[in-house]
Amino acid sequence: MKKLIIIFIAVFVVASCSDNLEGLNENIKDPTSVSGESLFASAQKQLVDQMVTPNVNLNNTKLWVQYWQETTYTDESNYDQTTRPIPERHWRALYKDVLKDLNEAAIVIEATTYPIDGALKPNKLAVIEILQVYTYSVLVETFGDIPYTEALDANNLLPAYDDGQTVYEDLISRLSTAINSLNTSVGSFDGTQDLIYGGDSSKWKLFANSLKLRMGILMSDVNNNLARETVESAVSSGVFVSNGDNANYHYRPAAPNTNPIHANLVLSGRHDYVAAITVTDMMNSLDDPRRPLYFTDVDGEYVGGEIGSTANYSAHSHVSAQVEEATTFGVLLDYTEVEFLLAEAVSRNFAVGGDAKSHYDAGVIASFEKWGETAATATNYLAQSNVDFDTVLANSSASEPWKEVVGNQKWLALYTRGFAAWSSKRLLDYPVLATPAEPFSGFPTRYTYPTVEQTLNGDNWSNASSAIGGDLPETKLFWDVN
After folding, report:
1. What is the pLDDT of residues 170-190, one digit of tens each?
2. 90 contacts 446 by C-beta, under 8 angstroms
3. Taking the domains of the chain in order of start, what are their residue ranges?
4. Between vectors from CA 101 to CA 83 and to CA 208, what angle results, nearest 5°?
5. Spelled out in words, what is the top-level CATH class assigned to the domain 35-257+326-468?
6. Mean pLDDT of the chain
7. pTM of full prediction above 0.90
8. Which residues have CB under 8 Å from 338's CB, separation 6+?
9. Cα–Cα–Cα angle for 86, 89, 92, nearest 5°?
């Protein structure tokens, strides 16, 4: 009897975590009733939602990089990944809600005859491929080894895990192929289906090259030759050159299509977050003009909560009205990040044009302008001795001073983009973050694998865990070697 109960529970969990809806009255993902374009639109929103949301059940990166601090329930600020099934929900969101829909969208679009706009089909498939690469790259950067070659197979509920570095290198190859296949003289999806670029294939090409730049930089310490080739080819093909190129998802004024930050901070009626003292202290020390754009003040001062401790909401700064606005863009990648990546590329002696200082300055200016400040204000900020690239570089005591200079300002510029900031911190080791009051672990360099994988896919989970050096929050991933 006990064995029967265990079997029943396992079957129930598998059914609950899969997208097989054959047992229900209506299969909303049946390609006979749902277009590939609709599946793409759904996947796009689910992807951006997961990258943007501050919901502690889904995404803790804004807390881990110490942009925000919790007011009452401080487990997540103290690096707890186990009280809530956070890794499982991240895993499920990207595999089930994004990759599965993108994969199905490609199958349906490939099989569909378009009597009028058939010329757009190849571009639609290329855009889908680009978002698949983006999504898989996030999974690799989050967990390490992941199911890849056997993923998305409805007939294989126990997929093997692939080596993370091998997956990442294959993703770069796939991305290059997708870039080369885009025909920028025609469009792709229409403006109701693509709420990032409205089907503009030239913008998607810029995005893909900028993603390729980011992925190449991430490989710099583990495969420098591939990193150089990847970065230089991406820049040669064309990356973002202004904030007008940003991959901004256009949220709507009313639920359920608002920015998830608005949903969690305004519509919920909760006061769960304040500014973190790490970011307010740095911005205060630099007299950073972006403070009122990022946070509210407390009697003219910007006051952050101690990391890992409870914080009285009214006594601390919290996110600005601009941040929590319903229609604030959800960002997958932006020009600000690209310029800082180019500063990193030059510092690594990659041939991308310009010098590190010029790209660093451009990144800071782009951040100011993105948030509504002027280039003149940014230029004055950059003239300060504690911000000026050359001065800070000369005064740094770091073993690789450029990492400190770029890492700190990049972190400030990536505010609210938790995943991007987390990856940057792990690669550059800057900024120096505070130790939480009651840490459950060391600084998390990865999400642990979902518990359901341990339970239902135990052999493959065990093999992957051994391969990466242990399923622990502090296990460094293949690209995080320094």
Report:
1. 999 999 999 999 999 999 999
2. no
3. 35-257+326-468
4. 95
5. mainly alpha
6. 93
7. yes
8. 210, 213, 214, 239, 240, 363
9. 150
